[in-house]
Amino acid sequence: MNSSAPEAQLDGSIRDGRHHMQIRVYYEDTDFTGLVYHANYLRFMERGRSNYLRLLGAHQRALFDEAESEAPGFAFVVRSMQLEFLKPARMDDVLDIVTRPLEVRGASITLHQEVRRGDVLLLDAKVKVAFISGGQAKPIPKPLRTAMKADQV
Prior knowledge:
This protein has 153 residues and is α+β, with helices and mostly antiparallel strands. Helices cover 30% and strands 39% of the residues. Strands 1, 2, 3, 4, 5, 6 and 7 form a seven-stranded antiparallel beta sheet that branches. Strand 6 (120-133) and strand 7 (136-137) form a beta hairpin. The mean pLDDT is 85.
């Protein structure tokens, strides 16, 4: 996949094994108190995970093709989440959604995600996602694990 410069900026970047993606907080993201509504952090983190995988695939299309041949129609689905809300975000804040792999266990991978405003940690999360193909859990293909550097964690 060839990404144009604006698309690449929207998807964020992977630096030192961590995916960083910037999001601006809009009025629609806040509740009546002017703070980001708690469920919207889940949407921000989902975008971070999706763009992390997109960047892996965009830069390494062959690995996604290989994963597809091993597990046709594969997808990642959220299995569990542990969230710690530390500080609020407000309208017009620019947030950094940081995603990195923690561990791989057969058909799942645990990711560490942070929502930051500059150097301030607002939310800390562990998200376990299951790898499925054909509606069933399947082992994550080796090329995909390697690309995520989960084998070295």
